[in-house]
Design brief:
The structure is a single chain. The chain has about 375 residues and is an alpha+beta fold. The protein folds into 3 domains: about 110 residues, DNA Polymerase III, Chain A, domain 2, CATH 3.10.150.10; about 120 residues, DNA Polymerase III, subunit A, domain 2 (DNA Polymerase III, Chain A, domain 2); about 120 residues, DNA Polymerase III, Chain A, domain 2 (Roll), CATH 3.10.150.10. Helices cover about 20% and strands about 45% of the residues. A 12-stranded antiparallel beta sheet has the order 15-11-12-13-26-25-24-19-22-21-20-23. Strands 6-2-3-4-18-17-16-10-14 form a 9-stranded antiparallel beta sheet. A hairpin with a 2-residue loop joins strand 20 and strand 21. Helix 1 packs antiparallel against helix 2 and helix 3 packs antiparallel against helix 4. The termini are far apart.
Length: about 375
């Protein structure tokens, strides 16, 4: 093999594939990355039996070739190169990575022991990459991070004809986002539970390109989802388990007793300041009344903080306790200048949505549901 690739292009591509490689693989060979040169491009691939990633970038190919090397090491090397281009050359046993006067020699791994990448299922439809990336970003913060509860670490993908809904919950909050797409089957319906981290990485990498979504069989233990766009492709096994029925947590419009609108950026800064004195498990008290939202944190024995911001209240005054981190995640997910809170009762789930202007109505295609925290007497 002998090939030259732009440093930034190569570093970004190698880094994306390397992020999906296991840090402690069950089989050492799975820490490898396949590098293949031919037809004016370099293709990089990784697979750990659960998910796969592959990307192709343009290159000056003098000699075709294919080898397997440590993926994370190759990523670190490519990022550190001093010049605008990187040269890859070598044979079946050793590969040289060079740029300017900087040279690294890597020993290859046995390519014949590396598993074949799974085939991407047949395409189910296409969606604008920017729309998909924005929707995933709005829900991913609500996904759980406890691997002992795998169902909560996924994002549920619900396909209903020409719309897709994404749902994520960690049992303390719920995020929902619905958006249009172009399915091959206009009447098709399907559900899939996809690892949240993979879905987030795919959405970011393929934003700006038309994204093809491919959903395979959803039978227990046999499900596979695939994504293709912008010269990249990725697959993942679906999470096996029943996602909880969480839509009932979204307050019905007729049950809402109070609503509040407040400037999103102003509230974010106020929460960050007040939360400095709040213990990790202690709530931030928010009182919505008399045209203000008053935030309080801390207790009499330790530091205390209080701040008020302008707010518009419709209905009865409300006092509620929030986990500061969850509230900040919800506000960050809105992507709108005005935050809209809908309350039924102070101890019941609260719906947080974004408004473009004070005259807008809350959109039905998104929701961020917060479970309030119990306030001390």
């Amino acid at each position: 093999m002998k090939v030259r690739v732009g440093r930034e292009v190569l570093a970004e591509a190698v880094g994306w594939v390397a992020r999906g490689l296991p840090s402690r693989p069950s089989v050492p060979i799975l820490a490898g990355m396949v590098v293949e040169a031919g037809d004016g491009q370099v293709t990089l691939s990784g697979f750990d039996y659960e998910s796969s990633a592959q990307v192709s970038v343009a290159a000056e190919v003098a000699d075709d070739g294919r080898f397997l090397v440590s993926g994370r090491l190759l990523s670190d090397i490519c990022r550190s190169m001093p010049r605008d281009s990187v040269d890859l050359s070598g044979d079946a046993t050793r590969v040289q990575v060079s740029s300017g006067s900087s040279r690294f020699v890597l020993h290859t791994l046995p390519l014949n022991e590396y598993p074949a990448l799974p085939e991407v299922p047949a395409a189910s439809g296409v969606v604008a990459g920017d729309v998909f990336a924005r929707a995933v970003a709005q829900v991913v913060s609500a996904a759980g991070r406890d691997d002992t509860l795998p169902v909560f670490t996924g994002i549920r993908v619900e396909i209903r004809g020409a719309t897709i809904s994404l749902l994520a919950t960690d049992r303390y909050r719920l995020a929902v986002r619905t958006f249009p797409w172009e399915p091959l089957d206009p009447d098709g319906e399907a559900n899939a539970l996809v690892p949240a981290k993979l879905l987030s990485d795919v959405a970011k990498a393929m934003a700006g390109h038309e994204l093809t979504l491919a959903l395979g069989s959803t039978r227990t233990g046999d499900g596979l989802i695939g994504f293709e766009g912008g010269g990249r492709r990725a697959t993942s096994r679906l999470i096996d388990g029943d996602f909880p029925r969480v839509r009932s947590l979204i307050p019905a419009e007729g049950a809402i007793t109070s609503t509040v609108t407040v400037d999103t950026a102003t509230l974010v800064e106020a929460v960050k300041r007040v939360a400095l004195v709040a213990e990790r498990t202690a709530p931030v008290r928010v009182t919505f009344a008399d045209g203000t939202a008053t935030l309080d944190a801390g207790n009499g024995e330790e530091a205390q903080a209080s701040e008020s911001v302008e707010a518009t209240l419709t209905g009865e005054p409300v006092v509620a306790g929030f986990n500061a981190g969850y509230l900040l995640d919800g506000l960050a997910s809105l992507g709108a200048p005005i935050a809209h809170f809908a309350f039924t009762q102070p101890t019941k789930p609260i719906n947080l949505t974004g408004l473009r202007s004070p005259d807008d109505s809350p959109a039905a295609d998104s929701a961020y549901i917060l479970m309030p925290m119990r306030l001390p007497n």
